[in-house]
Amino acid sequence: MPDHADPSPIITIERHILDEQAVHPEATGILTNILYDLALAGKVIASKTTRAGLAEILGRTEDVNVQGETVMKLDRFADLTVTRLTDHTGRLAGLASEENASFLPIPAQYPMGKYLLVFDPLDGSSNVDFNMPVGTIFGIYHRLKDGGPVTEDEFLQPGRDLVAAGYIAYGTSTMFVYTAGHGVHGFTLDPAVGEFLLSHPNIRIPRPKYFSVNLGYQTYWSLGVRRYTEYLQGREGGVKGLSLRYIGTLVSDFHRNLLAGGVFYYPADSKDPKAPSGKLRLLYEAAPLALIAEQAGGYASNGRKPILDVTPASLHQRTPLFIGDRELVSKVEELIRGLDGAE
Ligand code: AHG
Ligand code: MN
Ligand code: MN
C-alpha cells in the first residue's frame, strides 16, 4: 500500500535546477531565476488562455505586426506579460519578441544583465478563438559584449549557442518544458499549488507514431518534399502506420511528436513569393525547439542542414523546419538533396 504519510518528493523547477547545478556548476542561479520568471509569465498567460472566452481577451486588435499578421489580443497580452516580468530583474540585457519589429533594450531605470531573451509570446494565435491549444516559445543566450548598450547583432546567434530553451504549452494542462543543455525536462502546473511540478524528467523522443504537416499546401512544395510526404504515408517503400495529426500550433504539434514520437514539418512553399522560406521564424520558433529536439535524441533541419547551425541574418528571418525523429528528419534531407538539386 502506498504510504500517504510520505508524499513522493515535490520537484519544482527551482529544486530541479538546483539538483542540476550540483552536477553542472555552470548552470548559474541567474539562469534559474530567468526560467522562474518565464514560468510565472506562463502562469499569468495560462490564467487568460483558460478563460479566453470569458475575459475580454478574444479576437483581434487593430494592429498588424512586423510579420504582416493581425495581432490577436492574446498575442499582445502575452507579449506584455513576458516583457513586464523580465525587463526589470537585472538578469537580461535585452529581449527580442515575434511581436516587435526591433529588439527591446532594458529600460534605462533598470539594471542590465548578461542574458538575452528571444521569444514567441503566443504561438498558435489563429487557434485562440476556437479553444484550441496554444503556447509560448523561448530561448536564452549570453550577450556577446561585456557591457554597454545591446546591439541587434548580439541576438543573431546560431541555436547551437543557446544557454537554455523551452516552451510553455497551454493545453488540457499547462506544461513548462525546458533544456539547459543537460536533457529535456517537463513540468506540469498544479493549479491547486500554483507551481510547476516535475512530471516528465529526461524526455527522450520515442519511435515515430505521427507526422504533422498542413497538407493543404502540398501543391506549393518542392518535388523532394512531396516525395517525402508520400514516403511518410507508406508509398514508395516508405514508413507504414504513421497517423497524420496537425493542430496548427507549432508548440502543440511539436510537443505531441516529442512525447509520442513523430515528425513535424513546415516546408518552404511557393504560396507567397515574399516568403519563399515558409512561415516559421528561425530565432524564436525553430532554433529553441531544435535544441529541445536534439537534447531529447531527435533532430531539426531546414531541409539541408541542422537548424542549430544556421546563424540568423535578421531577427525575424523565416526558415523551413523539419523537426522530431532523427531518422525521419534525415530522410527529408536525403530526398531534397537528391530531387531538389543544389541550394
Ligand atoms: P504564431 O501564432 O506565433 O504566428 O505561429 C503560428 C504558426 C505555428 O504555430 C503553426 O505551426 C503555423 O503557424 C500554422 O500555420 P498554417 O496555419 O499555415 O498551417
Ligand atoms: Mn509562433
Ligand atoms: Mn506568435
Describe what this molecule looks like in 3D.
With 343 residues, the protein is an alpha+beta fold. The chain has two domains: 13-200, 2-Layer Sandwich (Fructose-1,6-Bisphosphatase, Chain A, domain 1), CATH 3.30.540.10; 210-340, D-Maltodextrin-Binding Protein, domain 2, CATH 3.40.190. It has helices at 13-23, 29-49, 73-86, 223-232, 250-260, 282-295, 326-339; strands spanning 60-64, 70-72, 92-97, 104-105, 115-123, 134-142, 164-170, 174-179, 184-190, 195-200, 210-212, 243-244, 262-266, 299-301, 321-324. The chain has an eight-stranded mixed sheet, sandwiched between helices. Strand 11, helix 4 and strand 12 (243-244) form a beta-alpha-beta unit. It is globular. The N and C termini lie far apart (62 Å). The relative contact order is 0.13. The mean pLDDT is 92.
What keyword list fits this structure?
single chain, 343 residues, alpha+beta, Fructose-1,6-Bisphosphatase, Chain A, domain 1, D-Maltodextrin-Binding Protein, domain 2, 2 domains, 8-stranded mixed sheet, 5-stranded mixed sheet, 22% strand, globular, binds 2,5-anhydro-1,6-di-O-phosphono-D-glucitol, binds manganese (II) ion
